[in-house]
């Protein structure tokens, strides 16, 4: 296990460097000059002299390989530069907004897990029953409805008409309900479908038949064996969605005026705030890599068959 973890961590380093190189290349291939973007955000009339000064200040007059090395060194120190709009360090701006995004992410994941696990598991156990038909409807509905439209519907009916929840902002638990539900519904659709299919597949496995012939109680078979193996695809999906939730809840944060990282990224795009965009892309890459590593370790713990395959591979 320890050797596997070390190897996985070692593979993260070149992937992160590639992501840094890709972001670096996109910035330099973009028609937007960072110096011009900075002056435009600062409402300063660009002249040749000021542009040359800013390019020298940003290090844009150096060779590309030196710029890339300096960029990697600064990023390793969490130095993403200064925002063109606020003139504050980008990491400080991001760090102040991450807690709001984490709060929204955790809330949506909790709702998705609490809803999808019982519905998906029961739908797999009772195929073609009422709960199974409901799970299919929920999956189709959650996968097809756009997040922004669902958010506006929830605002209209539950906030404007019934006055049950606040329309926007952050503060109490009531502010968290509507954006969390909006963000959780696509996850509920995905996890319910994955868990149902996995349960149906595992019910046909030989170990279920062997357990029944040994006289093991049906609840023990379903709870201790089938559920433990069937939930594996759902955990994989959760790991793949975790990075998306942390960095991609852009639409939901915009609809509910949630002061998170996604909304900050949207503002950075409109303002052509290059350091913020670079920080967003690299942070998204790190979150995807770390979440996938954590999910792989959880999978090895849940399913002993994966652990044996990894030991044979090592």
UniProtKB/TrEMBL annotation:
One Pfam match: BPD_transp_1_N
Membrane topology: Multi-pass membrane protein
Transmembrane parts of this sequence: 12-29, 102-125, 137-157, 177-195, 281-302
Cellular localization per UniProt: Cell membrane
Keyword Transferase: no
Secretion signal span: none
Protein keywords: Cell membrane, Ion transport, Membrane, Nickel, Nickel transport, Transmembrane, Transmembrane helix, Transport
Domain of life of the native organism: Bacteria
Record domain ABC transmembrane type-1: where: 98-299
Oligomeric and partner information: The complex is composed of two ATP-binding proteins (NikD and NikE), two transmembrane proteins (NikB and NikC) and a solute-binding protein (NikA).
Family under the similarity heading: Belongs to the binding-protein-dependent transport system permease family. OppBC subfamily.
Name this polypeptide is given: Nickel import system permease protein NikB
Organism of derivation: Alkalihalophilus lindianensis
Gene for this chain: nikB
